[in-house]
Write a structure and sequence with these properties.
elongated; 44% helix; alpha+beta; 224 residues; five-stranded mixed sheet
Length: 224
């Protein structure tokens, strides 16, 4: 049965307008995004298939165009729309961090880093550059691959901090393995970077490890 044949109070779009987006399930939110289903399946059914096929929303967001197009009814147009939505979310959170102190919006920082790093299949090391009021100046991915003490170069981070005239930095990297717990190498790297940046009077405010929907904060765990 098509969604247009459902009682109005059950239709995802109408429920979203009346009750707010938080009232909808993942499949229903995807149905609003999709707008239409395919032969024999409503948009909600297709949304449910998407979550089931990719295992989670994070899995869906990380899908390549090739993987995305495996499901009937999905293709380049929908893939482009989804990527646009994700990028808009990243930019909205970036604006929030630029307009207010990052330390006053720890949840916004975590959400931004999840959108930035959670879905990458490789390890990525990013840096948030902050001004004297802890507002975001810029964010950059500086290294990717297997991250170790020897593959993340303190000299390059110091150069980037000076180039941005940053007063403080926040580090972040992802664990594609799915566990956010820092390794001994993560801790050693953090201390090495902190010491190098102290020489040029740049503070390290935090180091986040992103693993799917989980985020580990060094500062919150007293590890800085």
């Amino acid at each position: 049965m098509a969604i247009t044949d459902w009682p109005e109070e059950l239709r995802p779009r109408e429920r979203l307008i009346k009750q707010g987006a938080q009232a909808l399930s993942d499949a229903e939110l995807l149905a609003v995004f999709l707008r239409v289903g395919v032969a024999g399946k409503s948009a909600v059914d297709l949304g449910r298939d998407m979550v089931g096929h990719f295992g989670s929303l994070n899995g869906l967001f990380a899908a390549t165009l090739e993987d995305f197009s495996v499901l009937n009814g999905l293709g380049p147009a929908k893939y482009a729309q989804l990527q646009a939505v994700l990028e808009l979310a990243r930019r909205a959170l970036s604006e929030e961090l630029q307009n207010g102190a990052a330390l006053n919006s720890p949840q916004a920082v975590k959400q931004y880093l999840q959108l930035l790093l959670a879905n990458r299949p490789y390890e990525s090391f990013a840096v948030l550059f902050l001004d004297v009021k802890n507002r975001l100046i810029a964010s950059e991915e500086l290294f990717r691959g297997t991250l170790t003490h020897t593959s993340v170069y303190p000299r390059e981070i110091v150069k980037a901090a000076l180039a941005h005239n940053a007063a403080a930095l926040i580090f972040a990297h992802n664990h594609p393995s799915g566990t956010p717990e820092p390794s001994a190498a993560d801790r050693a790297l953090t201390q090495a970077l902190k010491q190098a940046l102290a020489l040029v009077d740049v503070r390290v405010l935090d180091h986040f490890i992103v693993a799917g929907h989980q985020v580990h904060s060094f500062a919150e765990h007293g590890e800085l």
